[in-house]
Amino acid sequence: xxxxxxxxxxxxxxxxxxxxxxxxxxxxxxxxxxxxxxxxxxxxxxxxxxxxxxxxxxxxxxxxxxxxxxxxxxxxxxxxxxxxxxxxxxxxxxxxxxxxxxxxxxxxxxxxxxxxxxxxxxxxxxxxxxxxxxxxxxxxxxxxxxxxxxxxxxxxxxxxxxxxxxxxxxxxxxxxxxxxxxxxxxxxxxxxxxxxxxxxxxxxxxxxxxxxxxxxxxxxxxxxxxxxxxxxxxxxxxxxxxxxxxxxxxxxxxxxxxxxxxxxxxxxxxxxxxxxxxxxxxxxxxxxxxxxxxxxxxxxxxxxxxxxxxxxxxxxxxxxxxxxxxxxxxxxxx
Length: 334
Prior knowledge:
Elements: E1 2-6, E2 8-10, H1 18-23, E3 32-36, E4 38-39, E5 42-43, E6 45-46, H2 56-63, E7 79-86, E8 92-94, H3 98-102, E9 111-118, E10 123-128, H4 134-142, E11 150-154, E12 160-163, E13 169-171, E14 175-182, E15 188-191, H5 207-213, E16 226-228, E17 231-236, E18 240-247, E19 250-254, E20 260-271, E21 274-277, E22 281-284, E23 290-304
Antiparallel strand pairs: 1-6, 1-22, 2-3, 3-7, 4-5, 7-14, 8-15, 9-12, 9-14, 10-11, 10-13, 16-17, 17-18, 18-23, 19-23, 20-21, 20-22, 20-23
């Protein structure tokens, strides 16, 4: 069964007009379009078929076995897929692994970015140019002197970056990205570049939690795509698989026992008769088996994890910076 998804939108101070300008949808301004999401901070909905108006988890409950997986074990969506319109750069931040995120009542957040559009010179900060000790890192933060030590990578359409939990990062201005991630919304902000919100106030930082989550030795770089039938494999990790695929006229896919999540990057096609144009997101139930694309389109395909989330030990580092209030920071303000 092929189901069309309707996103929920997030308005954050760094968002722009790309969803409306490029895909002809969404309010202006918008920062994030949650294309496939079942999280307590936001959910997308199904817009056609027998599950019209339901979230994916609600549809899974109604459908029973074979919605997310042919195995009866999976009853909840294990990823969150979104689009990010960064008119201005996002905060410098880090996501926790599963073990630390569990203290927030959430999962960890390993993710992947795929570049849909970019201004000349636009890029992302991923990791550090060289490893730093926690003490030196904290010293540079206090002095507002960290930026020269960040690793900046320019991105062009089609470029992808894999970000394990614990990798320090920030999305630069002038990028439209597709992001696949664990089903999580926990982010710790390290720096907001001195920016003020609409009320003239600085946004909260989460330095103690960030320093516990951050792995200051992790490098960041563009992905090297691996050949795959019909296109390229972008990532295969315990939490998700990501593919960049091309349909030149007609192509077949097999759900192989687990759901497929499809996003059309460019061109247009049909998926078992369902329209599939640039900006569309479709969900293919696990029990569909073989399905067919007809048309000319470049698209992304995602599958959920092949095994349960595994805790990632935290560093054990305790910062001397002022402790942050208890409770999670949800990235509606990231």
